[in-house]
Amino acid sequence: MNAPELRKHEKYDRLIARCQGLAPIPTAVAHPCDESSLSGAIDAAEAGIILPILIGPIAKIRAVAEKLKFDLGRYEIVDVPHSHAAAEKAVELVHLGKAELLMKGSLHTDELMAEVVRKDTGLRTERRISHVFIMDVPTYPKALFITDAAVNIFPTLDDKVDILKNAIELAQALEIKKPKVAILSAVETVTAKIPSTIDAAALCKMAERGQITGGVLDGPLAFDNAISREAAEIKHITSEVCGEADILLVPDLEAGNMLAKELIFLANADAAGIVLGARVPIILTSRADSVRTRMASCAIAALYAHARRAATVRVG
Fold first, then answer.
1. Model confidence over 214-271: pLDDT tens digits?
2. In a shared domain, residues 153 and 118
3. Residues 68 and 179 in one domain
4. What stretches of the chain show up as alpha helix (H) in DSSP?
5. pTM of the full predicted structure?
6. Considering only CA atoms, which of 244, 184, 241 is closest in space to residue 217?
7. Which of 50, 139, 178, 232 has its CA 20 to 30 A from that of 26?
């Protein structure tokens, strides 16, 4: 069921194709010292998506490159002694304006994110940092964004506002002009017994009052209502979002993580990942990711960076 040949990548292929003709984005790659992380960076570089700056122990990086028969002559390598120093240096290169993206290599996510969120030298903004899975689900007609399934464990209502803003801005950067957002819960009615339904109702009212802009919100919605118009009609729900959702806002990390992994292992989906809300997008890849998924994560981050460049030019 999970064999690579059974997976489809049409949605990812379209995202990757959109990077053709665009300038590669300078990317600080923290500790690419195993085969999957180094090949992910080099594959994206060969496709013209990113311009990697490889940060880590140079002997380890070169040993992996030799094993993979990669020529690193065209790429800048910054020699540091270990993974912690690599994370620190990657963040520093962003501060210096030398990198517009940050990419996780073969270090633990917590190690990289600890440097990102540091109060003195990190990359925090006024916006809450959050993660978005961009899922390529063969049985769904478009890319499906799931947030937050990796960073915020039990987000508050205020956290969810920022999580939504991050996801909506990402969708718009990927040319979804008015993304449709389903705010998920176990049921589609508001009840004090399930706090996530109250959050959903509050978020929808906030959107009505202009506190959240750029998307069409509806919730609470159960998962079946969000992705199936027929399911919504059976329950007599009339909504622009039902069956058309671009973004699924989950109640908490546990629900989101289980939903994403169920889609991967039972629906043959792939999951590209990106962290938003910091000064630059952060590309998170897994050793289990396919080559196409790693490329898609880089393409999504690069397209977001290009959209930010364009927005800066318009403001200027």
1. 999 999 999 999 999 999 999 999 999 999 999 999 999 999 999 999 999 999 999 9
2. no
3. no
4. 10-17, 35-46, 58-68, 83-95, 109-116, 157-173, 195-208, 223-227, 229-234, 253-266, 291-315
5. 0.92
6. 241
7. 178
